[in-house]
Amino acid sequence: MMERETKGGPRQSERGIAMLMAIVAVTMLGVIVADFARNAQVNAANTYNVRDEMRSEYLARSAVNLSMLLLSVQSVVTREMKRFHLRPPPLWQFADYFVISFNDPSALELVGSLVGVGMEGSEGFGGFDGDMQVTIVDEESKINLNMAMQGPAMQKILAKELMALFLPTEYDDLFEDQDEQGNTMDRDDVTSALIDWADPDTNAFGTGGAEDASYEMLKDPYPRKNAAYDTLEEIMMVHGVDDDFWAAFVDPEPEHPEARAFTVWGSGKINVNTADPLVLMAVMCAFSQDPSVMCDPNNMEQMGEMLRYLMDIKSLMGVPFSNPGKFLRNVGQGAEGLPGMPMNAGAAGQHLTVDSQVFSIYALGQVGRSRKRLHVVVDYRGAHAMKGGKVVYWRDN
């Protein structure tokens, strides 16, 4: 007799194997579907990021273009008001409010009412998906290192301004550090190095020695440029300039670029209406009739009082000085209870100004987590003003 198949025999085993294979197949399919979904989500996120990056870039570009429009209007207003011997208001200082109005329908309507144009229903303005911000910095309110290109007389003025800028005792540590050769770069050394980088000759400023000696002794030597600075970042190439120097004078407040003391753009003249107290102190020391007294570290209290007096005038009047002569007279005469500080009016008058024509535009576009920063320098001198300005520098951050 044939034996009966016992319970759990071959047929039962086959069913078990089939079920196991089905479970494995479903599991693998689930993994594949999950991976596909994850890839789809990643690709969608990447697409959204690319979209937002592009939107943020064009918001930043829009902020730049609107700022250039405002600066062009400033040029026209300045020219027309000067015909009537009036001081034009610094419209560019309110650039952020102007730019924001183009992304706010109600503010845009207000702008339209001011210019006499109905903006209701205008396409391309207002309600952008994102945010744009802008800061305009007056480059002629800074000490221009490219004055070193303008001959010995201007180099001496620049040296006086730099020495005055470095004068406060709080900067002592910056000029006591040793370089990689073990040498200390004091205030005189750094001043000479900043001038020698840009001046066209090969003689060290102040000593007449060879300029390139300190650079040839570096671990990775490179030649001195002997030509104009093209960017602010180039200052870091100068022997004696390090991160601490950069943080003190070139970029002390990254979120507030107007706080820097140096520029490499513009004519080299300093606008006394827009310069900050540190730059004004450098100007006053450079053109003082008696710098040994005015710029004595022990005399900083009187200097501070004079600077506060000038800042008070600025805050009360907005555009306090119609010409450099009025600034020089205020400093020379002082005020009640504040002794004057006589200045060399002849030399200072040629180096100071109350007008600015070169500006930096710092624009930010933001959509979601995507941020785009632009730094654009625009020159409105001479014929450039009639053409809406000339872009002389453009950097994406």
Name the features.
alpha/beta, four-stranded antiparallel β-sheet, 46% helix, disordered N terminus
If you had to describe this structure to a student in words, what would you say it looks like?
Helix content is 46%, strand content 11%. It is α/β, with parallel strands linked by helices and 397 residues long. The protein has a domain at 50-138 and 358-396. It has a four-stranded antiparallel beta sheet with strand order 1-6-7-8. A two-stranded parallel sheet has the order 2-3. The chain has a two-stranded parallel sheet with strand order 4-5. The N and C termini lie far apart (91 Å).
Helix content: 40-55%
Low-confidence stretches: 1-5
Span between termini: 91 Å
The whole-number mean of residue pLDDT values reads 83
Q: What is the spatial order of strands in the main beta sheet? A: 1-6-7-8
Q: N-to-C SSE series?
A: HHHEEHHHHEEHHHHHEEEHE
C-alpha-based Rg, rounded: 32 Å
Shape: extended
Structural class label:
alpha/beta
- How is the biggest beta sheet arranged? 4 strands, antiparallel
